Amino acid sequence: MDIINASDVVLSTLSGAGGMDIYDFSFNAVIVDEATQPTEAECWIAAHKAPKLILA
């Protein structure tokens, strides 16, 4: 977990963002690449982790 705390950028799948490994972390922004691919519900798994959501 120290690696995540020290990182400027953390990459994850949408389902991984809701996993126990980073459950207690929050971020400045969540960027969903290829946002037309996942369902809206899948996006919300990661979206609650940050005050900013960017769909690309």
From TrEMBL:
GO molecular function, one term: helicase activity
Domain DNA2/NAM7 helicase helicase: 2-56
Gene3D superfamilies (alphabetical): P-loop containing nucleotide triphosphate hydrolases
InterPro entries: DNA2/NAM7_AAA_11, P-loop_NTPase
Classification via Pfam families: AAA_11 (PF13086)
Name of the featured protein: DNA2/NAM7 helicase helicase domain-containing protein
